[in-house]
Amino acid sequence: xxxxxxxxxxxxxxxxxxxxADERGFFCRTFDADVVRSVGLDPDAFVQDSLSRSVRGxxxxxxxxxxxxxxxxxxxxxxxIFDVVVDLRPDSPTYLGRASxxxxxxxxxxxxxxxxxxxxxxxxxxxxxxxxxIDRPHDPAEDVTIAFDDPxxxxxxxxxxxxxxxxxxxxxxxxxxxxxKES
Length: 183
Prior knowledge:
This protein has 3 helices and 13 strands; from the N terminus they run E-E-E-E-H-E-E-E-E-E-E-E-E-E-H-H. The model has no long low-confidence stretch (mean pLDDT 95). Helix content is 10%, strand content 39%. It has helices at residues 33-38, 166-169, 174-182, and strands at 2-5, 13-16, 20-22, 25-27, 48-54, 59-65, 72-78, 80-87, 98-104, 110-113, 117-123, 128-134, 143-145. Strand 3 and strand 4 form a beta hairpin. By secondary structure, the protein is mostly beta strands.
């Protein structure tokens, strides 16, 4: 497994496993504490694992947590997703930077999203299972959502949106979220 820094988002990493493939399929390690530790992250800091299943066109996000924030490891374990990270840390050298990736069950690549960054994704396949390893217990009172179609972000979602939660549909603009954050 190798770790690669994401240049558009300071502190974000891609963890790419080395699959062993044969006639049965493949095997790969999707988490390695030593590799995580090698880039300065505490592998023991992750306290919850979650899984979402989405159908083609479903969009989830853009989400982040207020307060201390929430760092997470995100991996598409089955299917393919278009994954997006937006840096909303005012002191970051990549503040308001954006990066997008295609994560898939074929590669099993994991994305590390630092606390203070918004995250969202769209399912590209009929079924897409997305796994999250989170560094804080979830507290719904700290949930923050930003409009997926905010013109300032101009995220090029690859498919028409077929479904999203009511919370995501009604999300405020980035400017509104940042204004609220400052007050």
